[in-house]
Design a protein that fits this description.
Length: about 80
């Protein structure tokens, strides 16, 4: 295996680590290389960025409808 190739598991770990701004130069290089070829990891990056942004900027909590709450309760009971 090439030293610059990383698995999706490693890429998702690095993306999570990136949210905390703790990537080394080599980790960032490997991650960018992986993201150029892996659409699923790019999607994961978008999702983690959105979650991180929302958490950092204190967006208002989403309000669920009564129907959605009841459906969630039913699913959790089963």
């Amino acid at each position: 295996m090439n030293l610059l190739n990383i698995s999706c598991k490693k890429a998702t770990y690095l993306l999570s680590k990136k949210e905390e701004n703790k990537l080394s130069w080599l980790e960032g290089f490997k991650l960018r290389g992986h993201l150029t070829i892996c659409s699923l990891c790019r999607k994961f990056e978008q999702q983690t960025s959105f979650i991180g942004f929302t958490a950092k900027h204190g967006q208002e909590q989403a309000v669920l409808s009564v129907e959605a709450k009841e459906k969630m309760k039913t699913v959790l009971k089963d």
